[in-house]
Amino acid sequence: MLLERRYLQMRVKASAEALLLYAVFALWFARVAETLDVTIFSNPTNVFVTENVSLECKFTGSTAFSLTNVGVQWFGPSRKEIYTFDGSKHTSKRQGAKIFEAGLRKGDASLFLPNIQIEDEGNYTCIVFVTPLKAEKSSELQVSAEPEVHLSTDHITVQNGTERSVSCNVKGFYPNQLDVIWEKETTKGIEELKDHFCTGALISMDNRTFSVSSRVWIEPTLKDNGNVYRCIVKHRSCPKDIIRTTRLTVKEPEKDSSVGAVVGSIIGAFVVCGTVLFIAWFFWRTIKVPPEIIEMKPSSVIHHLEENFINYQVYGFKPSKIRVVLILKRRENGNGKEILDWNSTDGYNINNVQSMCRNNEDEGRLLINCCEEDKSFSPSEPTLSCNSNRTFKLEGTVKVCPDVKSDNGAELILQVYHDTVSQPKSKAITLDVKAVPPKISNIVVPLHIYHNEPAALICSIIGFKPKSLQITWQQIRKDNNVELVRWHQDRTIFATNNGNKPKYHHQISEVEYEDKSYGITSVLVILPDILRDQETRYICEVKHNDSDTIKQKDTFLQITARPKLDRIVCDVEKPVAGECMTLQCQIRSFYPPGITITWLKQGEKVTENFEQSEPTLGIDGLYHLTTSVKSTLSRTDVGKKYTCQVSHESLAQPLEVDWVVDQLILAPKLTEVTVDPVHPEVGKPVTLFCKAYDFYPKDNEIFWLKGFEKTEGGIEMGDIVFDGSSGSYSRWSKRTFTPTYVDHGKEFKMQILHTGTSNKPVSSSHVLTIFGMPYVEDIKLDPPEAKYGSYLTMTCRITNFLPQDIDAAWQQNGNRVVKGITVKGPVKEKDGCFSVTSQLRIIPTAVNFNQEFSFQVCHIKLKAPVIKRTVLILPALSPTLSSINVDPNSPEVNQKLTLSVTLTKYAPAAVKVRWFKNKTPCSEVINQPAEIAEDGLFSSVTSTEFVVTEKDHKCVISCEVSHPATKEVQEKTYWLFLKGIENEESPYSNLPKDEGVSQITCKTPHPQAGQPVTMSCTVTGSALEDSHITWYKDIYPLDETNCIKNKSFETGVGFTTALTYTPKQEDDNCHFQVDIITEMDPISRYFTLKLT
């Protein structure tokens, strides 16, 4: 079968939109211009009955595709739909048919058909849609059934002078085109028989295969003895001919004495048979059989403008003369019109029946009267044939291509005229023409939908006819449902927006296919906002009235925002080699918060000294953060590149920003200051020498200092020298002077101010010691940090004294210490002077909190004692409070009551204690002096006393302890119940419990210094106007009413109180408190603020 050339007619509607709209659709139309190629199985393809076959259909294009954008349709014989795939759903209309999804992902839409049957033969069409493209190919599948061939005998014996026949039976073959040839093989060769055989008419079996029988008559002579007769069958299902053989044996007839009697009997038999045959022939010739209309129906469902066939069959009539009329009645044409008037001739009589049966062909003359043509109905010439029972049948076909608007409900009437009926027989069918409903693809959205960037939502509607269609786009948010745009009858209607221009654009692309079906691609361009449109649902609804179909697809927006990178900032203007610098980069305007940041140095990942803040949500709904990396540069780093690389799900490729080390400062290095002579003496000149080296650039200035005072005299400077090997400079300086006793123990230093590091002068120092005068080093602690209850050793060393007699003492707060002291020395050193080491070992307690310890040295050469001091830095610890102890346990009215709290494990000793009874301060408060406990920390007891009265029943006793050193305030409470009056009503019996007041919660995630922080507390069961609210920071009330917001519930019962405070860095771990008094009932809540 020749394939018709496919064509595609596209009609694209364009309208003048804003420049932004054209830019958005430029990419989309580029996709439409791309090609989609389909290859299908070879034409024709031959298969056998009951085989499993795979009909190849592969598609390729220039763009990668997703299965959600792919649609596949397979049509079989008579354009019957066999299989569909719509991007997610498989629908099979033929048992066992299947398309494998794994193959679809690779562009393979091949159709698998198991157990092929004869009815599977025909044209197959594969249609592939890859939104918005369509391509299709057709090819023919031929189904064959191999014939079975049997001879009636494989050996035949015939008497000389007599006649016998052999039949060749062929059955179960398809199609019906088949040749049967007889050959005779003799000693002279093989001879094809041209006559003496007859092949009967084809017989159609129930399984749609055919059978036929052919018989050869043999009248041999003795010389034919041993001949072989061959039946040869040729059929398309057999690559080689099928041959069946039988061998002939010829015998002499037997002699009989009663020959005359035998001959007489034979003649008599012939006479009787001839008489019977003549009577039968006459009876058959004169009998007539009326026609019967046994079939009039379409081959499949009739669709709008889709080619189909209506088959009719008139069966079992005789004689062959017959007339057929087809009448078409439409709804608007009640009388109808003839579209076919056909009759056969009288030539079909008994004399040519044998010829018809042998050839199975209609060789008569057909007469078709002129009838009015119809664009939707095209009848073909009927076919007249002979049945095996010598009656006739008539088969006809009407090709239809109906229009649903004009031909739905039309009536097609078949009238049959025959000599056996006085009135024509008729049969009618009413056409049910169906519109083809649309197939709607999943909504195609961009891989990433970006905040405040145009995004196109594409919905493709394909394969429908007729064209009339309505498309509606809807937007579903949590708070509303809006119809954005409606397209109908080539007109676009936007939803009203209070008179403002709509923020949406809509574009339509139309395609008409060769089968008169249509495809429409609807594109909605939106400008998504992450605050309003995240998780918004968009619906594309398609309404096709002709097929009474409403379909819709939806999608939920997942909006992202691409991060923006500020340039990398270095914390120093000019980096210095050997010093730590910090590179910082701000990353902003991204969503969602998940983000990966990598620092690179010359392309290699930096893993150490890398910091990244938590993403912070801004008021615009987008996140921002700061990242930094610390690095110490060397001179080899000049020209190297640092990169901040950001990976985010909104990015196809990571974003990068670079910072290059274009210039590097080399800070000067100094040698140790040397002294000449090594042991200076009073009144003799001494020279101090120091060298600065390895610095860049060269500009510098050198000073000599004594302590913190600049000196001028005796200074000599060397030239600035460049070292070509290292690319750095060096310079020396020395100072010569005559020391006095006052210079002993003084620090002399050389200081260099370098151009690149002028804010960080570099110095090298030397403590001048006059020979024989004691030098006292600073006190050293072991361990360096003192701890309560653990041993601490303080060491002080004295060197360079002569003579060896020396006096040294340890003091604590100005008082001499005599215990825990060990002394090593005096020891004579190599230079002839002496040294001594003194140690003081103690166990620090809370008494030693911030105490001063000193070491005093006296010597004959010292005009005044030398004193070295150190202060013990011990941590301040807030007291641990016991529960309130009550004495007696069950107090009675008029009885003296003592309530006490024990304070333990605190330092220093200063505390402030207040007792309250129903928030009223108690006057009788007794605070015992703090004492050192075994753990080395303070312990004390505070108490209050009063005589109980009846109104004290169920009152609240509280003890508030403030510790100034730790700024912590603690409180213990006790409900007082008096013995003997538990059931009596008390004026305080209605005090509320704590369930009505929530804990303080921080509403600001990741609170930071310098940024406002909001804390709130919720109260239920009380009105705001009946409550008194006080907020505290540590122990100090907050009076700023502008930072405290109180809001009542809508019911009027209950409220929320909130404090907004901007903390400083030193406010980390500070304490906040809210006191809420409702109808004289006090409730307190506490919160510790921790900064990130």
UniProtKB/TrEMBL annotation:
Pfam families: C1-set, V-set. Coiled coil: none annotated. Residues 51-144, 147-249, 438-551, 563-658, 668-706, 774-860, 875-970, 992-1034 form the Ig-like domain. Keywords: Glycoprotein, Membrane, Receptor, Transmembrane, Transmembrane helix. The chain crosses the membrane at residues 259-284. SUPFAM superfamilies: Immunoglobulin (SSF48726). This is Natural killer cell cytotoxicity receptor 3 ligand (B7H6). It comes from Ginglymostoma cirratum.
